[in-house]
Design a protein that fits this description.
- The protein has 65 residues and is of the alpha+beta class.
- It has one domain.
- 58% of the residues lie in helices and 20% in strands.
- It has a two-stranded antiparallel ribbon.
Length: 65
Amino acid sequence: MEEDDSDQDAELITKRNALKLFVKADDANPDAPYKIEIKNVLCFDLATAHTSIGLSFRQTARIIA
């Protein structure tokens, strides 16, 4: 029972952290009411480049960190 509770808490925290990327658009239209805010563009570009050549997310995280 306690493991289920901790798994649900971890999942909730993960969802919250993922949703922090999305901000309400000032010029919102029905097709795109949100924008994604990337705070570290260099890190994002590196992660995209590494995963695009076939590295896993875990491998990419270890390289960048």
